Amino acid sequence: MEVALHPLRLKQLLHLAAASKPHFLFGNIRPLFTLRCSSSSAAGTAVVAGGRNRRPPSSATSTSDREAVRAIRIKKVQELRSKGLDPYAYKWERTHTADQLQEIYRNLGNGEELTTESDHVSIAGRIVARRAFGKLAFLTLRDDSGTIQLYCEKEKLISDQFENLKTLVDIGDILGASGSIKRTEKGELSVCLTSFSILTKSLLPLPDKYHGLTDIDKRYRQRYVDMIANPEVADTFRKRAKIISEIRKTVESAGFVEVETPVLQGAAGGAEARPFITYHNSLGQDLYLRIATELHLKRMLVGGFEKVYEIGRIFRNEGLSTRHNPEFTTIEMYEAYSDYESMMNMTEEIITRCALAVNGKLTLDYQGVEISLERPWRRETMHNLVKEATGIDFTKFGDDLTAAKEVVLQTLDIGRDNQTKSSIEACPSVGHLLNEVFELAVESQLLQPTFVLDYPLEVSPLAKPHRRHAGLTERFELFVCGREMANAFSELTDPLDQRERLEEQVRQHRKKNAALVSEASDTDNKNKDMDDGAYEVTLDEDFLTALEYGMPPASGLGLGIDRLVMLLTNSASIRDVIAFPVLKTQQ
After folding, report:
1. Is the peptide bond before 376 cis (omega within 30 degrees of 0)?
2. DSSP-assigned letters across all residues of 199-213
3. Who is most buried in 371, 391, 470, 550, counting CB within 10 A?
4. Where is 223: in which H helix or E strand?
5. Which of 470, 461, 323 has its CA nearest to residue 383?
């Protein structure tokens, strides 16, 4: 049986609870009613002892109840100060974490208590659950390592500390606690409290433990609450930290040196992406947030470094999806006197070592698909993968773009998909068309780790020409679960060839912009079309100058860390692995 309290009565009871002893608890007997003032119950719930703790249908906290709880807790802050107690402490000396205590006393028997001086411990953390039974109370304390129970007896606490604990301590408060160690008859390791201090008084209520924080948008906006309410979320970010640490260990053990390159740049280069633009007042000029670290890392090779890498944030002013966030993290690395074969081996090494570090094995489940990271991974050319998936052999077309488009449109089941048809018809070369067909028909099918080799020259402006196949480059991309994970080249070092390719890229981009302007002028969506596709691309003349001083033969790799974390933590969205993802501002 459950009794739902009217909101007004809830506020009256809360006020009563704050001002005096909780009259609904009686002595040492089991309570008849337990009032749970959790954060997400709109009106609160009175639950008959022994009931199944069912909740009303709505778990959302109304603004009025939230403010009522906040007002009560502010009064408790004032009461603490009136008693000479600081509700926002400076520090706390602790001897152990919760996990350390669980490990040290794992063999302590049920009902045993240790009271020697060496077994007197001091811990600190957030209170995530509490129960009071007259002269006895149980609190669950969680710190960064785990949880432990606080066993609170009135007789063991001095003065009015027990009453303060019952009336002034709320779920969400951060406590420092000292006491001896015991294991209850039910097997729960506990700190038998002899003293405590409120280190931080929480003013806002947490989501209740039955429903948690389930609103996806709110979880991303208030990640701090998400991590409190859903501890597994914090575990994902611990794994992320471990993955980044393992990447550093792997590449530095191979002799790579970590360097830092500018985030603010005079020209946005190293990728085909729309940049964020800002303005520097003192310089009186526009600057761009970097869209890649590539060109400055190559400058380091020109300067004499032979193995360099950077782990850093990249910024691209493009769309949002489960795979894309405007700011994301990559590792880019460059090795002199090596080619793209070397980077395939390094990619395998980095990812397998990260998988073992966080999961202890090389097989994993990603969204219901079993993935094997056992080496070696499949290596196949883009031409062969397209031929395997569609039957189209692009080597037969030479430079005959018209014939290639006719075969593609006849072979692929496009139907009424006008957008796909337009994308195919807009391809300016056979190389672009090959890449388009790969993205349409092959990419999503590459579930197991696959290196896709030898991309067309037209879509790889920074890669070295293939030494055996004209029109192709020594480039690979790694795909897992139908997603690009890494991109690598044998780097282009010929400064004249590099200038020609980048100038052609600029021409093609301006041609595309002109087409967008023309198309938008014929529609009512001019501003939207322009915002989605039109932006300026400029040559990085200083990079071209650096190449003319001479860059050694080299290979380079870019690996998306966010997508790697998604894979190794079985996270469906990139927002699940970025602590504070970009979201539209709430009005």
Report:
1. yes
2. EE---SPPPPTTT-S
3. 371
4. helix 223-229
5. 470
Alpha helical stretches, state H, 2-62:
7-19
Q: Which two tokens stand for residue 244?
A: 């980044």
Q: Please return the burial class of 499, using the count of CB atoms within 10 Å of its CB with bins 0-12, 13-18 and 19+.
A: middle
**Residue-by-residue DSSP string for 68-100:** HHHHHHHHHHHHHHHTT--SB-S----S--HHH
Distance CA 176, CA 271 (A): 51
Structure tokens at 118: 């060496």
Give the integer Cα–Cα distance in Å for 13 and 8.
9
**Is 458 strand, coil or helix?**
helix
Q: What would the two tokens of residue 68 be?
A: 């009522």
Q: How far is CA 426 from the centre of its chain?
A: 36
CB count in 10 Å sphere of residue 37: 19
What tokens does 494 get?
């010929």
Cross-sheet strand order for the sheet of 554-560: 257-258, 307-315, 327-336, 554-560, 483-490, 475-480, 450-453, 378-381
Helix (H, G, I), strand (E, B) or coil at 124: strand
From start to end of 267-409, where are the E strands?
A: 277-280, 285-289, 307-315, 327-336, 363-366, 369-372, 378-381
Per-residue pLDDT of 26-76, as tens digits, reads 333 333 333 333 333 333 333 333 444 444 444 444 678 889 999 999 999
Are 317 and 266 spatial neighbours (Cβ–Cβ below 8 Å)?
no
**pLDDT tens profile 250-299:** 999 999 999 999 999 998 888 888 999 999 999 999 999 999 999 999 99
Average pLDDT (311-333) is 95
Q: What is the pTM of this model?
A: 0.84
Residues contacting 284, CB < 8 A, separation 6+: none
Tell me the one-letter amino acid at 318.
E
126 vs 476: CA distance, rounded Å: 48
The CA-atom distances, in angstroms, between 459 and each of 171, 333, 364, 393, 430 are 56, 21, 33, 19, 11
